[in-house]
Amino acid sequence: MFERSRTTVGLDIGASSVKLVELEHGEGGVRVLHAAEKALEPETIVDGEIMDRALVVEAVRSLFDSRAAARRRVVVGVHGRGVIVKKIVMDRMSVQEAAEAIYWEAEQHVPYDIHDIALDFEILDVDKGPKQMQVLLVAAKRELILNLAEVVREAGLVLEAVDVNGFAAQNALERGAPAPGGEVSALLNIGADITNVNVVRDGVPLYTQDLSLGGHSYLQSIQKAYHLSREEVERALGQTPRRLDTTAQLEAFAADLSASLEKSLNCLRSSGEADQVGRIVLCGGGAQIGGLAAALGRLQGAPVTIGDPLLGLSREGAGAPGDELARSAPRFAVGVGLALRKERAS
């Protein structure tokens, strides 16, 4: 019997836009059916929290209607200050026992009322020490998840699952271009106002953090330097040749990213988990800031590349034209990872 093809949809609700990725999973592999994006007005979403739900609902509804995505069940992602990811050490126990004990453990590690958060966990190492195991604890404020669920429901969709944006980006990037065994990689998903930092080795997160730093920070520094509106800056940056010299602003933005990443790496060095990063991979809209990868590479002394979440996926018949989709691929890393979530779990 031939396995029937199935589809999954990742819905990435970010600060500057909403992105949809629909994938078809079949015997021949995974194919991109649709990949589309709808811009949001500034301040619609701030630090991962929805400020104007009606605008987001309309953007999501418009995106699905215009692309005629067949599947109405979606996987969404969360990030920002309402999401906490920590590695903790617990007494060794079964998964069932850990599911009960994790709430008590979370009270010791999460700065929110235990009744106000949703919890998940994954056992990373069952032999971390004498009768101990290492667990990845993920906590998200229930209000954050409920707001996303309401957006999905009001847009006429069904919420299938919730993932963490940083993990979704990792899933997409490492599927197409896995790191060599044992190498430590720093994956940076640079969004409009938040950068997801995920330092991983052999697919296991070593350190995860969301930074209040993104592409908007870069644009705002140019606005301030040249006394321009954001629209004027975006228009000027799109011109060829450019009429603005943004070298100073680019170097400052790269320095901020590098300093934040260095703090993460120092935590790993002090814990003895990793000495150095073998590669840095960028994705998200901010990854496409001209010259950023090179500037960050100089500061970190490590190779920096722009990740392609569509590697290994068939793009034949995708909603966006081939060249356009290839150029914008880094922006869809989270959406692809969310749509791949079922494949990862299977």
Automatic annotation (TrEMBL):
- BP GO terms, sorted: cell division
Matching entries from InterPro entries are given as: ATPase_NBD, FtsA/MreB, PilM, SHS2_FtsA
Q: Which residues form the SHS2 domain?
A: 8-173
Q: What domain of life is recorded for the organism?
A: Bacteria
What is the designated name of this protein? Type IV pilus assembly protein PilM
Identify the species of origin: Eiseniibacteriota bacterium
